[in-house]
Amino acid sequence: MTATPAKTDITTPEHIRLLVDSFYGKVRVDPLLGGIFNGVIQDRWPQHLAKMYTFWGTVLIGEQSYQGAPFRPHKELPVDQLHFDRWLLLFHATVKEHFDGPVAQLALTNAERMAAMFMERIAFFREHPQRYVQ
Question: Does residue 4 sit within a domain?
């Protein structure tokens, strides 16, 4: 019987790449999310993944490499709470599949906060498009 290797925490750029690549590998083929992501990103997946490496590297391991406004590209997506719930389900599964530790927990907490904030802002934008600034 082969022992399962112990999971490590998220501490390196290689861990960030594993997290992002594994997560978006799931998203791209997901029946609910795949069509939306593939439709918007199209053939720009390498650029999107590179941006996600810098985002999560900044948020989780202090790389300070991300520059941008994370909400802006999402504000007009045809998504609702069901989509965010699935996004979180896949994200949680990916983190738990590969990692364990305080930074992995931080990733889960940040994903929860981000999903809630994005859904709240999308709803506000839909209700008050003329008041949205950013």
Answer: no
